Amino acid sequence: MSIDIKYVAKLARIALTDDEVVRFGEQLGNLLDHVNVLSELDTAAVPATAQVVESRNVEREDVPRDCLDREAVLSMAPQRQGAFFRVPRIIAEEG
Amino acid sequence: MANDTIRMTAAQIARAVNAGEMSASDATGAALAHIDEVDDRVGSFLTRLHDLARAQAKRVDDRVRAGERLPLAGVPVAVKDNMCLTGTRTTCGSKILENWISPYTATAVQRIIDAGGIPVGKANMDEFAMGSSCENSALGVTRNPYDLRRVPGGSSGGSAAAVAAYEAAIGLGSDTGGSIREPGAFCNIIGFKPTYGRVSRYGLIAFASSLDQIGPLTRTVEDAALAYEAIAGHDPMDSTSIDRPVEPVSHALREDLKGLRIGIVKEFVTEKLGEEIDALYQQAYDELRDLGAELVEVSLPTADYGLATYYLIAPAECSSNLARFDGVRYGLRVDGDDVGQMYERTRAAGFGQEVKRRILIGTYALSSGYYDAYYVKAQKARTMFANDFKRAFERCDLIASPAASSPAFEFNAKSDPYSMYMMDYYTIPMSLAGLPALSVPCGWVSGMPMGLQLAAPLFEEANLLSAAHAYEQGTKHAQKVPVAL
User: Fold this and answer.
1) Which of A73, B423, B469, B485 suits a disulfide with B253, CB 3.0-4.6 Å?
2) Stated pTM of the model
3) Using a CB-CB distance cutoff of 8 angstroms, which residues of chain A are in contact with residue B319?
């Protein structure tokens, strides 16, 4: 099986080298051949698993609790500006 | 003296420290000295925590002097490097988190500390817990203490090696498809994955959230029970953690298997693993019978579809979970002309080959047009696994099987990704069904240890550990010292 690896990498936000495009394309194709055995299973009457152990929705009182210190969190940022995370431009200039 | 101290089990250390016969500081000092002596060769740890460990040992000594009795008093613990511990580096074995410092502590780690345990280091692992040999770590090489030319297993390979090499009495690991049980088997120790949801995942960096579960690696079943009692139980910080009492088990471990029905899975044909391995597992099943168990044949008709099911669900969840590593808020950033290029370059530089492979397969399985054919189909297959086990457990109390398809292999022996994935053939079905399961040493093949996997119905950890204890005490396979030291 072959897949459009460049398109998938774009969705996954990973830049691939030319070598990786070839290698991953081949490896993922092989893996898909393996996982395609699932088509042999008759699952027409089987519900999809949502959870493996019984669990209920969890609620709590809507009151503020302690959270991580803002300075501690921002100190991890690759780049910050004051109280903000700084990133490269998001909207391209109109050319 | 120091040599005797490092050989002590967690139960023995806690007993001695609580009785005032030994201080937590002495137990910790012995472990730290031993780590300094052997870890350059074994490579269990990415970060050694000498200062933090000594400070924690002092606190434990103060608490014991003040009259407290702590179930893990002075016990050295190796923490897999995907669990947060405030102020320490938590890397997940990845370049993308190489210099990231945890701003908070995982619940399981905090509970170990509250119980008197001493974190002595952050243990190496396959990057983001994806792998079965620890070779996918971007940050270090961990070797099997029984043969330094071989891998320790994975992904919790550092935690397993640390325990096998007496650098710690307890290793905390995480298991998604076998990542505690397989390195446990490779390193001749106990690797125990509790029921999904038994142990809080708060502070465990996520791989596949519907499968991830924290559990202990130890040299004895009693120690696994002690560690389990310390870390299990409901945590409001993890809404999937189960609100159900944890049955105490460490003081009620059985010595035989009388009255237990143990299922042998018809589809798990051990002949295909080769004569020597087949003979070993037939012997292990005989030992179960000799200890009083009744062996019954059970069927898991879906067994051969486990890898396919797992290698859709786990990558799908990982592709979603790992989207957070984008260079914005923490970790590595590689700059680009715009934010999209920054994401793509950061993730290209920060993730290793296996992580990229899994993100890509997961992204594909979740993408428009393929979601039903792959992801939903796999979730339906997953239900079939749960139903298979339900039917099997109508005929038996526990299921016994191999823990891994082979003993620990040499480095670079598995160049094809799928041959590495095959290592988890026996552990994946239990993971898909959320069941508690463990690996207990059952003998040697080509001079390397092998593990017997025992699995129980949901929440029946007490029965599982108790039976494993009877097997361990009845066979004594575990009691062989690593030659590599």
Assistant:
1) B469
2) 0.97
3) 12
